[in-house]
Amino acid sequence: MADADLHALPALLGADDPAIYTVHRPQGASPYLLLADHAGQQVPHALAGLGLAQAELDRHIGWDIGIAGTTRALSDRLDAWAIEQTYSRLLIDCNRPLASPTLIPEVSDHTVVPGNAGLSAAQRQQRIDAIHAPYHARIDAELDARRDAGRRAGAEAGQGGQGGQGGSHWGWRKQVLGQGREVAENLQAGVDQSPHSAVYEVQAGW
């Protein structure tokens, strides 16, 4: 893919589009970093909802239902740094590696996504550069800063929702999958006091 192809595309994000992510408690004292990769369901205005009705974006295919509220509640309870990604997982899935076939799905849970059909290499790279890369760069920057300061850091990714994908209907539930009793008990206590439902999983050790 030539750089000229990428630069020839109209801008993906406009002045009226929201920021890529929101950070809560940036000075949080907790060693936990809470990651909500699927917190949002926004789509850039330029892409007209990816050709989907709002009701489709409101489903679990569009975001992890409830995880934004759970993340904020946990952040407050634990005094933990947290980040919420703003844009729909259908635009680009920030919980997927770049080589994943589901990074930008053309079909999700039997729903065709018109705005993802037949994308060029330049269009895919534009979404990576605009959304995926800066989101993960912000997380990496926080981890690097903590390492340089000699602080412990563990990254926990949250997932929530109603209904399932790929035929797996798991409904609303609360669960913590942790490495170590302290992590599990603290996170579970935060989830139990949240009005939302979610799964939190420790993704990185100390």
Helix/strand layout:
Elements: H1 3-7, E1 21-24, E2 32-36, H2 54-57, H3 67-78, E3 81-85, E4 107-108, E5 111-112, H4 121-148, E6 154-159, E7 175-177, H5 181-192, E8 199-202
Parallel strand pairs: 2-3, 2-6, 7-8
Antiparallel strand pairs: 1-3, 4-5, 6-8
Helix pairs in contact: 3-5
Task: Describe the protein's architecture and organization.
By secondary structure, the chain is of the alpha/beta class. It contains five helices and eight strands; from the N terminus they run αββααβββαββαβ. The protein has a single domain, classed as Aminopeptidase. About 30% of the residues lie in helices and about 15% in strands. The strands form two sheets. It has a six-stranded mixed sheet, with helices on one face. A two-stranded antiparallel ribbon has the order 4-5. Helix 3 (about 65-80) packs across helix 5. Residues about 160-180 and about 195-205 have low confidence and may be disordered.
Looking at this protein, list some descriptive labels.
globular; two-stranded antiparallel ribbon; Aminopeptidase; six-stranded mixed beta sheet; alpha/beta; 5 helices; 8 strands
Structural class: alpha/beta
CATH superfamily placement: Zn-dependent exopeptidases
The CATH topology turns out to be Aminopeptidase
Radius of gyration: 17 Å
Helix content: 25-40%
Q: Biggest β-sheet, characterized? A: 6 strands, mixed
Overall shape: globular
Q: In what order do the strands lie side by side in the largest sheet?
A: 1-3-2-6-8-7
Mean pLDDT over the full residue set = 81
Oligomer: single chain
Total of DSSP H or I helical runs spanning 4+ residues: 5
Distance between the termini: 39 Å
Q: Please indicate the count of domains.
A: 1
Taken in chain order, the helices and strands follow as HEEHHEEEHEEHE
CATH architecture: 3-Layer(aba) Sandwich
